[in-house]
Design goal:
The complex is a heterotrimer of chains A (304), B (869) and C (327).
Chain A (H helix, E strand, L loop, with lengths): L1 E2 L7 H26 L5 H6 L3 H15 L25 H26 L18 H26 L12 H24 L4 H28 L1 H8 L2 H24 L5 H24 L7 E2 L3
Antiparallel strand pairs in A: 1-2
Chain B lengths: L10 E5 L3 H4 L4 H9 L3 E5 L5 H4 L3 E3 L6 H14 L5 H7 L23 E3 L10 E3 L47 H5 L18 H9 L4 H8 L3 H13 L7 E5 L1 H4 L4 H14 L9 E4 L8 H4 L6 E3 L2 E2 L10 H8 L9 H13 L23 H9 L5 E5 L9 H9 L3 E6 L4 H8 L1 H4 L11 E6 L8 E4 L4 E5 L12 H16 L8 H5 L23 H9 L1 E2 L18 E2 L20 E2 L11 E2 L1 E2 L27 E4 L4 E4 L77 E2 L17 E6 L15 H4 L6 E4 L1 H7 L6 E6 L2 E9 L6 E3 L2 E3 L1 E5 L20 E2 L11 E7 L1
Parallel strand pairs in B: 1-2, 1-6, 2-3, 6-7, 10-11, 11-12, 23-29, 24-26
Antiparallel strand pairs in B: 4-5, 8-9, 13-14, 14-19, 15-16, 17-18, 20-21, 22-30, 23-31, 25-26, 25-31, 27-28
Helix pairs in contact in B: 4-8, 4-9, 4-11, 15-16
Chain C lengths: L48 E6 L8 H9 L29 E8 L9 E8 L7 H5 L5 E3 L5 E3 L9 H5 L6 E3 L4 E3 L5 H5 L5 H5 L5 E5 H17 L5 E3 L10 E5 L19 H32 L23
Parallel strand pairs in C: 1-10
Antiparallel strand pairs in C: 1-8, 2-3, 4-5, 6-7, 9-10
Classes of the chains: A mainly alpha (304), B alpha/beta (869), C alpha+beta (327).
The site of one iron/sulfur cluster has 14 residues of chain C, from helix 3 and strand 7.
Chain lengths: 304, 869, 327
């Protein structure tokens, strides 16, 4: 069955999904570093600066994408009664709350990182007394990371929970989104690290190792996703612009980074940066491919 | 018949109309019948939205309907499927025809009496018939019917008159009883066994003998088996307890032999006993809102009111007496003609109309020929017409648009009163001729006045719809700005003209001076809830229809009260009865029958005459007055009450018993027996054979259209010998079989648009539904011509060439006609160069050729060529 | 001449003519032939109402489309300046934010037209699903189920996220460019509230669109199907209770759903939701593990390593202020 009506989920949307993914991944990475960085990982402190601004950007993108942006808050409050608006069975409703809550955590970590750098202080909360390294800080970061991964998942779940052929043909978009978020987030951290030269070697080595694992996982999930699509789904994804984007994502985001890893065990910031950029670009292409595929043609294939 | 009665039909043949698309609301009753198990048949060149819901679809070559109907007639006779008792008792089947009559069958396709035409060419004739030989056999030969009031020929070689012509003139009236008595003919010879070789039944049998199923297939292109399926279904659903109806519209009228097509259907329905009975009859689906009304109280030039011919300079109408002699029938209902005519003259000239001055008859305008639309436009094109009022019409897009626009450009002044700036109002700066540079606006001298018109909801008034049902509608709101109703416009125009002529002493102006025009509201009566001033009091117009005592002004009860001595006044006898005695307007009544009982709904509106729904409904009962069957009970004789009763207003003298014998020599209905249902006819019979009224022959005969790709397979005579044609450089025709124009083209409507489109192309909601002009053609033709769907196509005829988008569809199909493959194309004609969505004018392709009886154009069949643009 | 004015200013309906017998009922019609329902529909709030669209009665007149546009004041394509679609007589093309009724024209003609062929006409509309995908996903609660068991989008609550557009199995919803909110057939909620028949059903000349209480409509529909089957027309109901709990706007069709552009097996978007969350969760866990494991591996290496250069050892994370990073 052919569909005529498009959702018009365009660049605002896949850009948002990418940005939010990066934010989520970066937060998780920061937490990871904090866990094992024994509270002294300079890279962790840098990583904590990334998520919040990105989430603000993501929120803006989502709002602007609405046909009635001034009503963005209807997602959270019922416009008549002003009671909270939450539909656990609607991924977008859940997602809206996640996109609201996660930044709270990201914000605190962001502020903490700034205070840690002595940019400013809030009374007792000063350069000597940061959350970083404390148990509270750790718990905070862990909970925040869980929210982060949820943020990474929901948009994928949302796409599967539709009647657009392609999206609704596989329940693995969410899983894929998580993997991509993790990879791209980690990539972002590495990149910043490389650019600001504030990463000590071991962190970088560790992250690269993690990155390699995540890339493999992402490759695996992507494979499962593609395999489970079925005829209708293949028709949607393995054609035209989305096929190109997919190939691009696989080559740039998966194959080359792995090669780079295996080849250059050496640690020039250059290779690290290259690795980071590759996975970021790959991640973006993947988001693009998935969001655009069913909408690429004027006539959208209906759910099979 | 009336549309609601279709619900009672067991079979409905829709031929000559795309009823579902053009009469969707009336089509409700067809669906009602279908749901009750009736069979619906659609005969059409195209598979349309009507065909989509029909049980049988029969493809047919445009213009070949008489062959198809002739085939059905032959089938019913040869297969003995006709309704014998009905035919013998209620039709003129038994009547014997004058021996000099020569039928087309033994006369190369023309009837006896054909002669060259020598009159004014503007009437469009090249030949005419002398119908003397078509008359009933009686000594001496006389005239049986009257000239059909719709005969627009403008001329009639044979005039009605007393039997044997010469006779000592009866004394001048009023009263005119003696005059009427003098018109009574001797009875015609008959043979109830239907065996006499010259009896109508035998003549009809012989006439249609050659219309065999094989011939039908050869001429119409309709596969034999489908034709037979139609014939069997129709026969199986006609008879004492089953009835079938025909529905037609302009796909039967818009031919050079259109009236004969309808005649053929009437003949067939009489044979099957389907006239005057519930679910039977012929549904004439009329067009414009109240176009029926405009023929009842006519805007037509040739008829004054109630279907009485307009006094004519070309007929013996010199004095009122002459007129009455010529137009009255001694027997049958029309013996009342003097009463209606005199009452009409009283309504025209009021107290000034006296017996001494023939009730002002001499003041009444007389026509001098065919003044209908096409000849008028031809004269206009020749610069012989100064000005024109165009109210509710858009001729710039109508038949042979180029010629009509040329005509407009020759006017000195043109008044267009419309809701929008139509193609007609804008021709001088927006027409194709101007766009192509052929004309320059500054060279066109026509001064155009555009008056904004009120719309339907902004005026009150009556509509008469296709079933003679008059319905009053109230006004919802005042029209905006300067928009005014047509009644206002006409009334104000009349008042001003009256003032202009008030002091004229010229004899020719006396008629207009004496014309009664008193429709102003009485003091204190004018409605207070409106901004608009100067509307006429429509209730006074209704009174004129109803009729009243010329002195006391008391309303008459109905047209039976009208007198021929001037003591009564009535503008239109057929509308008399529209007011109740206490002055209530029946047309405003809204009382339907109970649910799912279409019934006669006598409480809903007013159907002329006398609120009667089915005409000739006495035929719904056997000669003895009892219903033909329980199922089809409608009107019957109640011996106990000694009167006719039923669901409808009986179309018969209420207390005239079925066994009442005819009184030979008597006038009016006394000349008919109690078993003669067709009271308007001189002999009280339904006419299978029409001695008078048809100027192109007493029986339908298949001719080819004025333009046809083939030669007439049936007769040597190619087309209707007396059809009308106006010779003009812009109105040339293609010769039969002209290879340059190999395809048959027909034109029609779409549900989504209205006529020239002014009421739909200006409306976004409608415009979006059918935004562009298209031409429908079959995949086969498209392939042959290398045309793809939506390609631009050039369509050309000897009159012009236009462009349209191709709509390639299996709904059109090539036909096998006379051994050859014949392609038909079709175009809607709703587009023009003004409005929200525009398109080229389909009518730039069509020609001015017409039916001789009613001067309607042949818009449904002509030839063209089609090329990829 | 002056007339005594016999006419009262307002016309009163006149009673039936005297002397006429009220018409007796028609001879009993075959039980399968109910005729067109013509009595005004009676219904109350709390009672499910909807449409039975009998496509075999449709004459494609589009009165329903126009009536809907008019009543709901929906703008025409490009202010009416539309283009010819070339797809039979269908130029409005689809259901969307400004076309809440849409008449489909499906031409079925074989090459030689021997089997005469068909022109299927169908007036499509929102199905007012008992289990409505659009309603399910709407994050703002703009889409509600009314007291008439119909599905309505509240234009004042919708913020135009377009999730419903992707969720409807029947491709019904789109953003209305004028209001910039998602819109579709409201089943004339405003008319229902005052006891009026929906505009489209009111306008339908052939009763192809029949409005009324669902139960009554289903009864009528079954009867009609039986009737048509008896004439070996392959008629069936699209949208009975087995489909999404029942479509409150259901159809009588005579060919496969796909022929009419309808899904043969419409489903709720939520069918994928739980699996998606679960797989995402799994993915998250795996991601976490990969992180933890790789770093643990790193610590092992650290311990195993002999004198690492540059950094003193520390026994794992310790509370208290971390040493600031060297400036
Ligand atoms: N929606 C809509 N309704 C209308 C109108 C409108 O413009 N739009 N116009 C009104 C007016 S004024 C009128 S007069 C009526 C006209 O009502 P109709 O006569 O029903 O309308 P047409 O479309 O002119 O022609 C009907 C059919 O005739 C077929 N046809 C063409 N030639 C022949 C032929 O030779 N024989 C046979 N059997 N069929 C043929 C055409 O294919 C077409 O399908 O409609 C009225 N109703
Ligand atoms: N080729 C071809 N040509 C045909 C036909 C065909 O089938 N084929 N059909 C023929 C037939 S049957 C007909 S009836 C004619 C129709 O041809 P026309 O009558 O010339 O065309 P209409 O569009 O009906 O013009 C009616 C005009 O009246 C205006 N109008 C509407 N209401 C009012 C009102 O209350 N007052 C006033 N003053 N104006 C009003 C409308 O805006 C419109 O401009 O076309 C004929 N031409
Ligand atoms: S347009 Fe008017 S006249 Fe024509 S079918 Fe509709 S309601 Fe009847
Ligand atoms: S058809 Fe689509 S829009 Fe209508 S109720 Fe069902 S899901 Fe919602
Ligand atoms: S677009 Fe409006 S109605 Fe549709 S889901 Fe979003 S908020 Fe609800
Ligand atoms: S019910 Fe009302 S809103 Fe829905 S299609 Fe009919 S008219 Fe339009
Ligand atoms: S109004 Fe009725 S008949 Fe006309 S298109 Fe709509 S559903 Fe069909
Ligand atoms: Mo007409």
């Amino acid at each position: 069955m052919i569909r005529y009506n498009a959702a018009h989920w365009d660049w605002l949307v896949y850009l948002e999904m990418f940005v939010a993914g990066v934010a989520a991944g970066a937060y998780a990475t920061a937490t990871l570093l904090e866990l094992f960085g024994r509270g002294r990982s300079p890279l962790a402190r840098v990583a904590q600066l990334i998520p919040f601004p990105l989430m603000v950007l993501a929120g803006l993108l989502l709002t602007v994408d609405l046909a009635r942006p001034e009503r963005f808050w209807h997602m959270i409050l019922q416009s008549e009664t002003l009671r909270p608006m939450l539909k656990p069975w609607s991924p977008m409703s859940v997602g809206s709350w996640l996109v609201l809550l996660f930044p709270v955590f990201a914000f605190v970590s962001f502020v903490d990182a700034l205070i840690g750098r002595g940019v400013f202080a809030l009374g007792g909360w000063n350069q000597r007394q940061t959350l970083h390294g404390t148990l509270t800080g750790l718990l905070w970061a862990v909970v925040g990371s869980l929210l982060a991964l949820a943020v990474a998942s929901y948009s994928g779940v949302l796409l599967s929970t539709t009647n657009f052929g392609g999206w609704s043909d596989s329940p693995f978009i969410g899983a894929l989104y998580v993997a991509t978020a993790a990879v791209t987030g980690l990539g972002a951290v590495l990149l910043i690290g490389a650019l600001t030269r504030q990463a000590d070697a071991e962190d970088v080595v560790g992250l690269l190792r993690v990155g390699t694992g995540l890339i493999c996982w992402q490759a695996l999930v992507l494979a499962v996703f593609l395999l489970t699509l079925g005829l209708n789904g293949w028709a949607v994804f393995l054609s035209g612009i989305s096929l190109l984007a997919l190939l691009g994502a696989i080559v740039i985001g998966i194959v080359i980074p792995l090669v780079v890893r295996l080849a250059g065990r050496s640690l020039q910031p250059g290779t690290t940066a290259l690795f980071a950029v590759l996975v970021l670009v790959g991640g973006f292409l993947l988001r693009y491919a998935i969001v655009i595929a069913p909408q690429a043609s004027a006539r959208i294939p209906g759910a099979s | 018949m009336y549309a609601g009665s279709l619900a009672d039909a067991d079979c409905i043949v829709i031929q000559g109309s795309n009823m579902a698309e053009c009469h969707p609301v009336a089509f409700r009753w067809v669906m009602q019948a279908k749901l009750r198990g009736a069979k619906v048949i659609h005969v059409d060149p195209r598979f349309t939205r009507t065909s989509a819901v029909a049980d049988i679809y029969a493809p047919i070559r445009a213009g070949s309907d008489i062959a198809f109907l002739g085939g059905l007639i032959r089938y019913m006779i040869e297969e003995k499927k006709y309704f014998h008792d009905y035919v013998v008792n209620y039709t003129n089947a038994a009547t014997i025809i004058n021996e000099e009559f020569r039928d087309t069958e033994d006369n190369d396709g023309v009837f006896s009496g054909l002669m060259e035409y020598t009159g004014d060419p503007i009437n469009g004739f090249r030949a005419v018939y002398d119908n003397r030989t078509w008359q009933y056999a009686r000594a001496p030969v006389g005239d049986q019917g009257r000239t059909a009031a719709t005969a627009q020929s403008g001329e009639q070689p044979i005039t009605s008159g007393p039997p044997g012509g010469e006779q000592t003139a009866p004394p001048k009236g009023p009263p005119y009883d003696a005059l009427v008595q003098g018109l009574v003919p001797p009875p015609a010879q008959t043979d109830p066994t239907l065996q006499h070789p010259r009896c109508v039944f035998q003549i009809v049998r012989r006439h249609f003998a050659r219309y065999t199923p094989e011939m039908v297939e050869r001429v119409t292109g309709c596969p034999k088996e489908i034709f037979l399926q139609v014939a069997e279904t129709l026969a199986a659903n006609s008879g004492p307890d089953r009835t079938s109806s025909f529905c037609y519209a302009v796909a039967w009228t818009q031919h050079t032999y259109g009236v004969q097509m309808i005649g053929a259907a009437a003949l067939l329905q009489l044979l099957l006993g389907n006239i005057g009975r519930p679910g039977g009859g012929i549904m004439a689906l009329r067009g414009h809102a109240t176009i029926q009304g405009s023929t009842d109280i006519p805007t037509l030039y040739h008829s004054i009111q109630g279907y009485m011919p307009a006094p004519s300079a070309l007929r013996p109408h010199d004095t009122l007496e002459d007129y009455l002699k010529a137009e009255t029938l001694g027997t049958g209902w029309w013996a009342n003609t003097p009463k209606y005519m005199v009452s009409y003259l009283k309504s025209m000239y009021g107290d000034a109309a006296t017996p001494e001055n023939d009730f002002g008859y001499d003041w009444h305008p007389k026509i001098t020929g065919d003044h209908s639309h096409m000849p008028m436009m031809v004269l206009m094109a020749e610069g012989k017409v100064q000005g024109m009022f165009c109210m509710g019409q858009n001729p710039a897009t109508s038949l042979n648009g180029r010629l009509q626009r040329l005509a407009l450009s020759k006017l000195k002044w043109l008044v267009v009163k419309d809701n929008f700036e139509t193609e007609t109002a804008a021709f001088w700066y927006a027409s194709p001729e101007v766009k192509s540079g052929e004309w320059r606006p500054q060279d066109i001298q026509t001064e155009v006045f555009l008056f904004p018109s009120a719309q339907i909801a902004e005026m009150e008034g009556c509509f008469t719809n296709t079933q003679r049902l008059v319905q009053f509608h109230e006004k919802a709101v005042d029209p905006p700005g300067d928009c005014r109703s047509d009644a206002w416009f006409t009334h104000q125009l009349a008042l001003r003209l009256k003032r202009l002529y008030a002091n004229s002493t010229l004899p020719r102006d006396q008629g207009f001076r004496n014309l009664v025009w008193d429709y102003d509201y009485d003091p204190g009566q004018y409605p207070t809830d409106t901004r608009i001033q100067g509307e006429p009091d429509l209730r006074k117009v209704h009174r004129e229809w109803q009729g009243f005592d010329s002195r006391t002004k008391q309303l008459v009860a109905g047209f039976t009260d009208l007198k021929d001595d001037g003591s009564t006044t009535c503008a239109s006898w057929i509308y008399s009865g529209i007011l109740t005695p206490d002055g209530q307007l029946r047309a405003a009544s809204r009382q339907p029958d109970p649910e799912n009982q279409p019934g006669s709904n006598l409480g809903w509106g007013f159907a002329w005459p006398a609120n009667r729904r089915i005409l000739y409904n006495r035929a719904s009962a056997r000669p003895d007055g009892q219903p033909w069957s329980e199922r089809k009970r409608w009107v019957w004789w109640d011996a106990a009450q000694g009167r006719w009763v039923g669901h409808d207003v009986p179309d018969f003298p209420l207390t005239k018993a079925p066994d009442t014998p005819a009184r030979p020599g008597a006038t009016g209905l006394d000349a008919h027996s109690g078993a003669d249902p067709f009271i308007m006819k001189a002999d009280g019979k339904g006419w299978l054979f029409t001695p008078t009224g048809m100027v192109d022959g007493p029986l339908p005969t298949h001719y080819e259209a004025a333009e046809s790709p083939i030669l007439n397979p049936l007769y040597k005579q190619q087309n209707n010998p007396v059809h009308k044609y106006w010779d003009h450089p812009a109105n040339q025709l293609a010769a039969p079989g002209d290879p340059r124009f190999p395809y048959v083209i027909t034109t029609y409507r779409l549900t989504e648009h209205h006529l020239s489109g002014v009421m739909s192309r200006w409306l976004p909601w409608l415009a979006q539904l059918q935004p562009e002009l298209f031409i429908e053609l079959s995949p086969e033709l498209a392939k042959e011509k290398g045309i793809q769907n939506l390609d631009w196509v050039q369509v050309s005829t000897p009159r012009g060439t236009i462009k349209a988008k191709a709509l390639v569809t299996g709904r059109l199909r090539p036909l096998q006609v006379d051994g050859k493959t014949l392609h038909q194309v079709g175009m809607p004609w709703h587009w023009g160069y003004m409005g929200l969505v525009t398109g080229e004018v389909t009518n730039d392709l069509s020609a001015l050729v017409a039916d001789p009886n009613v001067s309607i154009h042949e818009g449904k069949t002509f030839v063209c060529n089609v090329e990829k643009a | 001449m002056r007339l005594p004015n016999l006419l009262p200013p307002l016309y009163r309906p006149t009673p039936q003519q005297p002397g006429l017998e009220p018409r007796p009922p028609f001879p009993p019609l075959p039980a399968t032939a109910p005729g067109l329902p013509s009595a005004p529909v009676v219904f109350q709030p709390g009672q499910p109402v909807g449409f039975f669209t009998d496509t075999t009665l449709c004459i494609g007149c589009k009165a329903c489309e126009v009536a809907c546009n008019q009543w709901n004041q929906l703008p025409a394509w490009h202010g009416g300046q539309n283009t010819l679609s070339g797809n039979s007589y269908d130029n409005t093309r689809q259901l969307d934010g400004t076309h809440w009724r849409h008449v489909k024209f499906i031409e079925q003609f074989d090459g030689d037209r021997r089997s005469t062929g068909r022109w299927l006409l169908m007036s499509d509309v929102c199905k007012h699903c008992v289990q409505a995908g659009c309603l399910e996903v709407c994050p703002t609660g703009a889409i509600i189920r009314t007291e008439f068991d119909t599905v309505v989008i509240q234009a004042d609550a919708c913020n135009g996220c377009r999730y419903c557009v992707t969720a409807c199995p029947f491709d019904v919803i789109e953003i209305n460019p004028v209001t910039n909110t998602a819109q579709k057939c409201t089943l004339c909620y405003d008319r229902l509230q005052v006891g009026l028949t929906p505009a489209c059903a009111q306008a339908c000349p052939t009763a192809s669109i029949q409005f009324g209480p669902i139960q009554e409509l289903r009864r009528r529909a079954d009867q009609r199907v039986a009737e048509l089957r008896a004439q070996n027309v392959p008629a069936y109901i699209y949208g009975d209770e087995s489909m999404l709990g029942g479509l409150n706007a259901f159809f009588l069709l005579v060919d496969k759903p796909e022929v009419y552009g309808l899904p043969s097996n419409p489903r709720l978007p939520s069918r994928n939701q739980l699996p998606s969350w679960l797989w995402s969760g799994l993915s998250a866990v795996v991601v976490g593990l990969i992180g933890l494991l790789s770093f643990r591996k790193r610590r092992m290496d650290d311990l195993a390593a002999a004198r690492p250069a540059g950094r003193e050892q520390a026994p794992g994370p310790q509370p208290g202020p971390g040493k600031g990073v060297p400036q």
